Amino acid sequence: MFIGHYAVGLASKKLAPRASLGALIAAPILLDLLWAVFLLLGWEHVSIEPNRNPFLRLAFDSYPISHGLVAVVGWATLFAALYYGCTRYGAGAIVIWMGVLSHWLMDYVVHRPDLPLYSGGNRLVGLGLWNHRWYTIAVEMVLFALGIFIYWRQTKAKDRIGAYAFWAFIVFLLAVYGAAAFGPPPPSVKKIAIATLCSALLIPWAWWCDSHRESADSRS
Ligand SMILES: [Zn+2]
């Protein structure tokens, strides 16, 4: 799952309207950012299988610290606690907690059985939607459209940046998704990790768009 995680971030604005979209996007992509760091550190392992369908080119050999369910609950709680400590916004903290957890649940739907429940556990889970390339694209596109729709109804632009920077953000995500779904296989594990880390730049971008938008309710 790639663009579906961003859909969760966008849609969660409805549940925590005062939370910045930056934080709401950071939550559902956090696990993959951690994964990239752990790959670079050599603590987690992935290999590339270039001849498979584009969604199956990564074989997740081991990633219990970033994607083990027990660890994920810990990451969610840590991030939500940090968020609450900085903002004192309870609804935001709860939504952040759910956002981090949603990543694992969505990965559970798409990954082949490679997701660990806890570090050292033998049981690996995953429903394997990625085996079906077009179903995956259809599901992610529907989720993404829903996320955009919910966010768009929940907020309104304060100025032009609030409209254009937001749509540029959406188009950029679609372009990256298109490259992943139809482009050539990734050249190396290191490049995957660095590209994934670069997606952290989408967090300040989302924060920036969002700061130029306001609650649509303030109309009344
Ligand atoms: Zn993931």
Would you mind describing this structure in some detail?
The chain has 9 helices and 6 strands, in the order H-H-E-E-H-H-H-E-E-H-E-H-H-H-E. It has helices at 3-11, 21-41, 64-67, 69-87, 90-110, 133-154, 160-182, 189-198, 202-211, and strands spanning 45-48, 58-62, 115-116, 124-125, 155-157, 213-215. The strands form 3 sheets. The chain has a two-stranded antiparallel ribbon with strand order 1-2. A two-stranded antiparallel sheet has the order 3-4. The mean pLDDT is 94. The termini are far apart. The chain is mainly alpha-helical and 220 residues long. Helix 1 (3-11) runs antiparallel to helix 2 (21-41) and helix 4 packs antiparallel against helix 5 (90-110). 63% of the residues lie in helices and 9% in strands. The protein binds zinc ion (ZN). Residues 31-32, 67, 103, 107 line the site of zinc ion (ZN).
List keywords for this structure.
mainly alpha; 220 residues
* H/E series: HHEEHHHEEHEHHHE
Helix content: 55-70%
Overall pLDDT = 94
Low-confidence stretches: none
Percent in strands: 5-15%
Shape: globular
Secondary-structure class: mainly alpha
* First and last CA, distance: 38 Å
Radius of gyration: 17 Å
